[in-house]
Amino acid sequence: MNTYSMLKRVAKSLGAVSLFAGLIVVPSAVSVRVIAATGPMYPTADIAVSDDDDTGEVVIKDGQTVRVEVSADINYVSTVWDTNPETFSASQFGVASVGSGVTTGTTTHRWSASSNTNMTCSAYEAGSTTTSTLSIAALACKDDINYLSYELNVEFTNATGSDKTITMDFVGNELLADGSVVADSSSFMSAYQIKELDANGAVIPDNATGTILLSYTGLCFATSVQMNDELDIENVVKLGDPTPVDLPIWTYDGPPPSPPYYTISGSGDLDGSTFTVTTTGYFNALVAINASITNIGDTVIASLDLTDSGESVLSDDCGGGGGGPSLTQPEIASGAGSLTNGRTAGKGKWSTPKNLPAGFPVASLTHASTPGPLGDVFYYGPDSSGDAVIVRLKKTGAAKIGGGTTKLTIDLAAGETIGSFGWYGAAKNKYVLITRISGMGMSTSYKAYLGNLTNTKDRKSKTIAATELAAANGMCGSSNTVYTNLRVLSAPTAAPMVAAFCALPMGRFLQRIGKLNVGTGSAATITSYASFTATDDSPCVYTSYGVNEAAKGSKRALVIYSATGEGGAGMCSGTGITGRKLITVTTSGAATAKTISSAVFGSTEPGSLVIVPGKASNSWLVVAYSPDSMMAPGGPSKMYTISATGGVAAKASVTLGSSQTIFVAAGGMVQDDLIPIKQLNNGKWMVIRIQHNGTNDTKSIALATVNPQNGAFTYGEGIKFTSYQRNAGAYIDRHTIAPNGEMSYYFSNEAGKFRVATWKSFTS
Fold it and tell me: Is 736:757 a contact under the CB 8 Å cutoff?
């Protein structure tokens, strides 16, 4: 079941328009990665085997590869925190005695330090073969650290022809703080057989203890899978002897079945039958089998596939080998159309390559970026431990963020995945990160992490209960919600603004904007600026909005256009719009709603609106987009203005030609986008023109002016990219506008580096 036909409209109306408000590329403008499907996939099995915590002994059967984990932690109540240590080290961990012929393989150390009072204070190091120390001296929040864990992983392989015993001398292990023994640390040991499964599965060995973890890592979508698509899970989990039988799945609904049974989790919304796409790059999945000691000798068979209408969309070829993400990076075309000098209006220039903060990956498909309020960009995503890392990039390079270094790290709990990041506040100096907590539809909850972009003040976290969205009085207006998505809407408002998408039964969906209330207590609530409810006659509620980043006091910081009806594309097909409203929101969050006449847009209703502030106080500029179709996304169709009193006036139609040298070649799958920026002194609008051809992987960007009375364009300098194969959010790929109207484009095409193209603003 593929819901893209419905959700493509959603991306344009809520996602794209809100992103346009921050002046970045529309999500549906990304090209399609064509990789041959090869599903189903087979996992790596980690089968827990017996170990002796008293002696540190592990028996390795002939032919086994076993990973031994030795770990220790210092909890919150330890007195060691009274002295604020700066360096921790491990003593006597990993001293192994191995039998003759047993080989020692990969060794890794993992340290994690965090605070249960300061949710943004954490440190993490992993993957080194030599680092048995961790320094927290450089952390601005060093004095807040009150929890520490250390884990050593060592792999051993027995190919001797007989069983062998290894001994991990961890009995006398100690964690040291600045060289001194920490008396009240706790230590643990565990061991797992590592087995690569194929169609024949693997036999559970007689040293197994009953827990089996099946890991599918680095799986890639092979066709044009889109964000929020719902795919079918073809998951095989069998256990038995001589004939393996299907195991029941526990989806955390009610008490678990009697063992053996399995659960499934991963970097997407999974339940027993469907997978909701939250990244169009690569993802991981984990199947946990709760078996029993009586299952020794049974064969475990497992595979995983994701399908759309019965066809596999899964591949283990992520490019570059080894299952890691690797897309063709864009190249800047030379000659005509490339940026040169930047000295006159509409012209621009490229910066030299600038460094990303050390250790922050540029090529991860799980990372994303969003425009900042000062012509800057926030780039964020998970680090190797799954915690959230945010960096702030400016034209001059990476800047400090959150009062610390150039990386803001937020410690996430198990089951949390990064949703979105944005800014808020009259001074544009506060941030909010929203994470998604595992769940589907009405059971999905969220968490908000808040703080100050320039110092360590106001750091806190708030839970957002599922009922704030999926309830009759919640954002979705229904307690029978199929799917929810909540993300940050950056605006100069006193409270954070959020945008929600809700998929409801019977093909209904709606989009709403709300205010996140984060006062006292551990939980946040949402005040919805709700205008319509999805009904049988009007199953869809569409929302577009614009943000005035310069708004102060009683000025309108936000304008929301909401329409309901059958009109649109996909599952909500038809032409009947039954209601339209304009909602304006001040910086304090106060809202005023006005009903809009059916005659406003003439005979053709727009599919979505791109809205930015006009020159007059509380006025707005609008570019309307035609509805998406099943074959192609909608494009810019007409210009409008919204007055301070809410009056909507039609301007010229938008006609985009292909004769300009900045544009991609005609033919193929071409999407043309027009993004208004501001109204100039002579009444013309400054705009961005973006054109992308998904067939030949080219893209072009240019600054321009347009006369709203007759639709005449004057183009400035542009840039053209070739080999433009990438997914939205996979790399830094963002436009942003400074308060003076200067446009910048942040871009990366080499590991650990980024570049910025800057256009001088038109002034008249």
Answer: no
CA 179 to chain centre: 40
The confidence score (pLDDT) of residue 327 equals 43
Neighbours of 596 (CB within 10 A): 18
Tell me the sheet residues that pair with 30.
none
State the Cα–Cα distance between residues 475 and 485, nearest whole angstrom.
Answer: 11
pLDDT band per the 50, 70, 90 thresholds, residue 666:
low
Q: Given 3-state DSSP classes, what are the helix, strand and coil percentages for the chain, each rounded to the nearest 5? A: 5, 45, 50
Q: Do the bridges between strand 348-350 and strand 269-270 make them parallel or antiparallel, or are there none, so unpaired?
A: unpaired
**Vertex 367 angle, CA 366 and 372, to 5°:** 155
Other residues' Cβ atoms within 10 Å of the Cβ of residue 694: 20
Rounded distance between C-alpha atoms, residue 100 and residue 523, angstroms: 57
Q: DSSP characters for 85-138?
A: -SEEEEESTT-EE--TTEEEEEEEEEEEEE-SS-TT-EEEEEEESS--EEE-TT
pLDDT digits (tens, 9 = 90+) for 379-412: 998 876 778 899 999 988 999 999 888 999 999 8
Integer Cα distance of 764 and 761 in angstroms: 9
For 271-314, write each residue's pLDDT tens digit. 667 887 765 455 667 788 888 878 889 999 998 888 887 778 77
CB 306 within 8 A of CB 315: no
Measure the CA angle with vertex 535, ends 532 and 539; round to 5°: 90
CB 284 within 8 A of CB 382: no
Torsion of CA 630, 632, 633, 639, to 10 degrees: -110
CB atoms within 10 A of CB 142: 17
CB 454 within 8 Å of CB 403 = yes
- By the 8 A CB rule, do 428 and 492 touch? yes
CA distance 405 to 723: 35
Residue with tokens 């954070």: 496
d(CA 613, CA 621): 6
Confidence of residue 586 (pLDDT cuts 50, 70, 90): very high
Confirm if 591 and 585 have CB atoms less than 8 A apart: yes
| Burial label, 599 (beta-carbon count in 10 A; 0-12, 13-18, 19+) | exposed
Cβ-contact 26, 19 below 8 angstroms = yes
